[in-house]
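Wait, can you check?
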Amino acid sequence: MNQPINSWIIGMKYYLPCMLIGLLLSYLGFMYYKSLLPLGIIIFLLSIFILFFFRDFPRVINAKEDEIVSPADGTIVEIKEIEKKEYYEGKCLRISIFMSVFNAHVNRFPYDGVIKKIIYKKGKFMNAMKSQSSEYNESNTLFIETEKGNITIRQIAGKIARRIVCPIKEGDFIKKGEKFGMIKFGSRVELYLPLNCEVYVKDKEKVYAGLTIIGRFK
C-alpha cells in the first residue's frame, strides 16, 4: 500500500491561511485599529475549528484476527440486510456510519485484504444522514478481497463535504486499521459485509475508526 495519508497536511490549505489572517487582523486590531480585533479573533477561532476537524492522532489497533473494525468515526444510522449487485455480489449486511463535522474524518480499513476494484461516481450532495444519499451522492467504492470473504467500503460525500480523498490503487495489499482516505466536512461511510459475519454494533451507537469492533467473521 502507498504511504498513509496525513490529514494534518491535507487540511493545511484550509486552516493555515485562516490562522495567519486571524493573527494578522488581531495584531492590527490590538495595536492600531480596534475595530479589526473582533474579526481577527473570529477568523482565528474558525481556523482552530478547522484544525480540529483535520485531527489525525495515532491509534493502536488491538482487534483479534477474525474481528472487523470500524472504517470511520461517527454514528451508526443503519444496519440492514440487502442485495445490491452494484456494490456486492449476493446478499450482504450494510452498515452505514454518519460522520458529522465534529467527528475525525480519517477512514481506516476494517480488515486485511487486497483492493480488487475501485469505482468513483460523481453525484449530488444531499444530507448524508438521509438514506437516499447512498444512491445519489458523489461516492468512492472500494471492493476488497479477504481470506474470509469479500468486503465493500463506500465513501459518500455529504451536503458540506464535497471532496473525497482516497490515494489507494487497485491491487494494493491492505492491513486492518491502516488509513486509506478521508471525506472533508461531514459525510457517510458504508460497510458491506458477508452474511457469515456476526455484528456487534447497534443502531445509533458511536463508533471509532480502527478502535470499535464492528463484528467478526464466524
User: Anything to note?
Assistant: The chain has two domains: 7-54, 67-217.
